[in-house]
């Protein structure tokens, strides 16, 4: 049996600058029983933008699972990063239930943005937001995995780097290579056409395009690489995702 409870609370948290009021939504308060453990379950936040995936048999015994939702504007973030999702906190109350043989999966839907997105969790020991390995799926979806029974999480967008935009081509060395204004030479990038799902891997070997001239240009592909994604005669491919391999 699974029980769900929705509650709104106002918590007062003592911080370094005094007492801070945080509005918390207990999005779901679940009791996951043995039959559900064997099937697996996805816990969703009240706004449906946070998904905590629990694979079958990840939990060793019955437990309560609680997800809280916070307003993103009530937190401070690293310089150069802007929150594009609410802050979510999940807690598997019975820590002995979490076997950690398989990870938990996290999917967060964000504000639509072309900027580079990364998932972060708050490390209470060092009192800092720490980046998690994550993968952008499209303009408003990002995935990650986690080997912890508790975490407070948010998606932040980099103020300077874009990851979704237009791709152009140029005749250079005739290789699976590209010019990037964001990544150093030698960086291996995945380049994905979100409209066709075609993708290639390229190595950065040059700088460009100039964002002051082409603000929506995310990468400049060698024509060999470009032709793997589309017709050279089109000149430009749109809705291209670029991420580090």
Description:
This protein is mainly β. The protein has 2 domains: 7-160, Chondroitinase Ac, Chain A, domain 3 (Sandwich), CATH 2.60.220; 163-244, Barwin-like endoglucanases (Beta Barrel), CATH 2.40.40.10. Helix content is 5%, strand content 54%. It has 2 helices and 19 strands. The protein has helices at 34-39, 223-229; strands at residues 7-15, 18-32, 41-44, 50-54, 63-70, 81-83, 87-92, 104-109, 115-123, 128-131, 134-138, 141-146, 150-162, 164-170, 177-179, 188-193, 199-206, 217-222, 236-244. Strands 1, 2, 5, 6, 7, 9, 10 and 13 form an 8-stranded antiparallel sheet that branches. It has a 6-stranded mixed barrel with strand order 14-18-15-17-16-19. Strands 3-4-8-12-11 form a 5-stranded antiparallel sheet. The two termini are 42 Å apart. The model is unreliable at 7-19 (pLDDT under 50).
């Amino acid at each position: 049996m699974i029980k769900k409870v929705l509650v709104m609370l106002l918590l007062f948290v003592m911080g370094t600058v005094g007492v801070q009021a945080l509005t918390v939504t207990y999005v779901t308060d679940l009791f996951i029983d043995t039959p559900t453990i064997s099937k697996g379950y996805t816990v969703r936040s009240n706004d449906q933008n946070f998904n905590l995936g629990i694979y079958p048999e990840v939990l060793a015994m019955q437990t309560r699972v609680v997800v809280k939702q916070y307003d993103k504007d009530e937190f401070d973030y690293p310089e150069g990063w802007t929150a594009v999702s609410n802050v979510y906190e999940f807690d598997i109350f019975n820590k002995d239930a979490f076997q950690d043989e398989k990870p938990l999966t996290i999917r967060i839907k964000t504000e639509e943005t072309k900027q580079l997105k990364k998932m972060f969790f708050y490390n209470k020991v060092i009192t800092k937001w720490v980046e998690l390995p994550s993968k952008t799926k499209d303009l408003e979806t990002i995935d990650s995995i986690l080997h912890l029974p508790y975490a407070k999480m948010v998606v932040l967008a980099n103020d300077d780097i874009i990851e979704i935009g237009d791709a152009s081509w140029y005749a250079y060395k005739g290789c699976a290579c590209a010019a990037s204004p964001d990544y150093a030479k030698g960086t291996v990038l995945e380049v994905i056409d979100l409209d066709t799902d075609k993708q290639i891997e390229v190595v950065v070997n040059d700088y460009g395009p100039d964002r002051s001239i082409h603000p929506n240009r995310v990468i400049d592909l060698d024509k060999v690489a470009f032709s793997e994604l589309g017709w050279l005669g089109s000149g430009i491919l749109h809705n291209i995702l670029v991420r580090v391999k």
